[in-house]
Specification:
Elements: H1 2-12, E1 20-26, E2 37-42, E3 52-58, E4 63-69, E5 80-84, E6 93-94, E7 106-112, E8 129-136, H2 143-148, E9 154-156, E10 167-170, E11 176-179, E12 201-204, E13 212-217, E14 223-228, E15 234-240, E16 244-246, E17 253-261, E18 264-272
Parallel strand pairs: 5-6, 8-9
Antiparallel strand pairs: 1-2, 1-10, 2-5, 3-4, 3-7, 7-8, 10-11, 12-13, 13-16, 14-15, 14-17, 17-18
């Protein structure tokens, strides 16, 4: 029965996300940055933020310089929640009038923890971490912030040379793009609503006959690969930086292929001949 349950869960699993995450940040604008913001997005509307905090880290010493307690708040009917300058349209928690969020290299993190555990000057930590972004505005990477928050990429708001007019936005699949702000709206780099989440990943050839398989993704980054036989036994577990996966150890038969990348995952039936 356990084996049947495992196979069923693998077959019907599509895309999974954490309950809340950092959806968009805009940290540099023209002048004194009077509409800076961090946008949080929840999986479900009107999601309680009880017990969550947002911590802002300074890259100069890799310690916190601001903590915002979200207890008592909920996301809106679309799942959005805004922390930012008082002039930011529709801001839910104001953290000042101007220059409220440092430009980088810095970081912003969500924790499920008490604000009292994060006074200003708290060293960067991944304990009780829910989500995080390390960012800059044409700055060198901060390896301490990246390592301390279990991140591998520092995102550059000046990627296109327009740091004062563009923001850093989640693509919904574990990465971020830089484009015009989309406050309380779907991010510009999220896949179109008519594209299935499962279509982010393509495999070829299937059936596989030559001891290899190509796994293509619409986003860049490392993919975590697991292959299970029909009895639920894991026969391959590896990470893939490119597209080609060696499956020469597999016998002919039917398998379940699970692909994970960032916050997205999917399962596919794989036939080996």
């Amino acid at each position: 029965m356990k084996t049947i349950t495992l196979i069923a869960s693998l077959l019907f699993c599509t895309v999974s996300f954490s309950q809340i995450g950092i959806n968009e940040v805009d940290v540099d604008q023209t002048g004194t940055d009077v509409t800076e913001f961090v946008e949080i997005l929840s999986d479900s509307p009107n999601f309680s933020l009880e017990g969550y905090i947002v911590v802002f880290y300074n890259g100069s010493d890799d310690e916190s310089y601001k903590t915002v307690d979200l207890t008592g708040y909920v996301t809106d009917s679309e799942g959005f929640f805004i922390i930012g300058s008082s002039a930011t349209p529709g801001v839910d928690i104001s953290i000042g009038t101007s220059n409220t969020i440092q430009n980088g290299p810095d970081a912003i993190a969500i924790y499920q923890d008490s604000a009292s555990n994060f006074p200003n000057g708290t060293p960067v930590t991944s304990v009780n971490l829910i989500d995080a972004i390390v960012y800059g505005t044409d700055d060198d990477d901060d390896p301490e912030l990246l390592a301390g928050l279990n991140q591998t990429v520092q995102y550059d708001e000046d990627l296109n040379g327009n740091k004062e007019t563009e923001s850093i936005q989640s693509d919904g699949a574990g990465s971020f793009c830089v484009t015009l702000p989309t406050l309380r709206a779907e991010n510009a780099c999220v896949l179109g609503i008519n594209q299935s989440q499962i279509d982010r990943f393509k495999i070829f050839p299937n059936p596989a006959t030559n001891g290899y398989l190509y796994i293509y993704s619409k986003i860049s980054g490392t993919k975590s690969i697991s292959v299970f036989d029909v009895l639920g036994k894991q026969v391959i577990k590896t990470t893939l930086n490119g597209e080609r996966l060696d499956i020469s150890t597999l016998n002919s038969g039917i398998y379940i292929l699970k692909i994970e990348q960032g916050k997205s995952s999917t399962t596919k039936k794989l036939v080996v001949k």
